[in-house]
Amino acid sequence: MASGDRHEWAWFSLGILLCGLMLAGVSGCGDSAPFDIIPVTGKVTYEDGSLISAPRVVVMFTPQIDPIDEKTYPKQGSAEVTVKDGTFSDMTTWKYGDGAIVGPHKVTVESYDEMESPTNHVPQIYRSPDTTPLTAEVGPDSTEFTFTIKKR
């Protein structure tokens, strides 16, 4: 094989590889969620209606449903809370803003400072799915939630 033929073959092979990668990206390999997901929105405040005064607050929905099989478990959804008004939207489970898995959830709330370190603005009980009293049943008729937590 002549030197020019080898270069042409290398470019041809690279072109085939790049086309394959582009097609895989367009087809969305691995992007689809194996569970039904619905967009959800809501609000998180203290029981007296005041806002959580941390620089960053995150709400998480932990599904309380069984896995599809030994390799396919339901993923937790999370959303940033807008600290100026306590609202959240763009809940993300598999893809940004896709929502939360349909079904029952334990809801946790966490707060962080400017350095992304956890703060005590949210009592410990609300930070773990094992202890939180907050729950949500996500479904077609249940997509907006209001949660209140106790002040420290």
Quick tags:
152 residues, 1 helix, two-stranded antiparallel sheet, alpha+beta
Question: How does this structure look, described?
Answer:
23% of the residues are buried. The strands form 2 sheets. A 7-stranded mixed sheet has the order 8-7-3-4-5-2-9, with no helix packed on it. Strands 1-6 form a two-stranded antiparallel ribbon. The chain starts with a helix and ends with a strand. The chain has one helix spanning 3-27; strands at residues 37-38, 41-46, 56-63, 77-82, 87-88, 100-101, 103-112, 135-138, 144-149. The protein has 152 residues and is α+β, with helices and mostly antiparallel strands. The radius of gyration is 22 Å and the shape is globular. Helices cover 16% and strands 30% of the residues.
Could you outline the blueprint of secondary structure elements for this entry?
Layout: H1 3-27, E1 37-38, E2 41-46, E3 56-63, E4 77-82, E5 87-88, E6 100-101, E7 103-112, E8 135-138, E9 144-149
Parallel strand pairs: 2-9
Antiparallel strand pairs: 1-6, 2-5, 3-4, 3-7, 4-5, 7-8
Give me the secondary-structure category: alpha+beta
> What's the end-to-end separation, in Å?
77 Å
Instruction: Look at the structure and give the mean pLDDT.
Output: 85
How many individual helices? Answer: 1
Shape: globular
Would you list the SSEs in sequence order as H and E?
A: HEEEEEEEEE
Main sheet properties: 7 strands, mixed
Strand order of the largest sheet: 8-7-3-4-5-2-9
